[in-house]
């Protein structure tokens, strides 16, 4: 297993195979193939002698249409810790094999067969911060006035995935505002959670395409009622789900009042609320 190193990147997977054992066995870099693909130059290995010891490198993108024959398998498991907000989490495993091609002609060979396996697991859930816009067409970025946004101003939020195959859709599991930029140990307010949506939050699209959209009116935290402006941060826990299974995760369409204290208030001494968002 020490003869291969691989890097599971966010946009590609890179493999590095020690070339000395390959040559010793009777092969060279041109006789190593990735998942039995021989006719695609982008799937061939290249010899890198700038490092010691020298290696054969393979690099391919994380895209089902151009991943050089890699297998994509989605699994599901119960999670804890940073993914504790999910009842379960989906993981996509990308795997394959680099193996030798024996050029020997005839009935028998004295060359050993080489196989180098790789496997990368990617959780399909993320805790992300969003960019907000101020129009329902999701074109104009939200402008933050010096004195803040006026209460009840509707903010439009979009979570969008790019370079994504049709197999996956974007699904928001939970969006909430917190006073601290780090949501742990901070006062927070749920805009929506699975099977429960704040009555002021409007969900437009979720789990149906490569983007999810909703809007909500600007509010104040009671904890900050004596401050000139109310400052808080928006967070969304988002997953990529297979298009055929997104419906099993969707939140309910029914309007439900949450059990938290009412915080949509207006301070007579301050008519504006200021929002700061993470990037």
TrEMBL record:
Annotated Gene3D superfamilies: Zona pellucida, ZP-C domain
UniProt xrefs under SMART domains: ZP
Claim: Disulfide bond is one of the keywords in the record: yes
Domain of life, source organism: Eukaryota
UniProt KW keywords: Disulfide bond, Signal
UniProt domain ZP: residue ranges: 7-258
InterPro entries: ZP-C, ZP-C_dom, ZP_dom
Xref: PANTHER family: ENDOGLIN/TGF-BETA RECEPTOR TYPE III (PTHR14002), SI:CH211-103F14.3-RELATED (PTHR14002:SF21)
Designated name of the protein: Si:ch211-103f14.3
Source organism of this protein record: Scophthalmus maximus
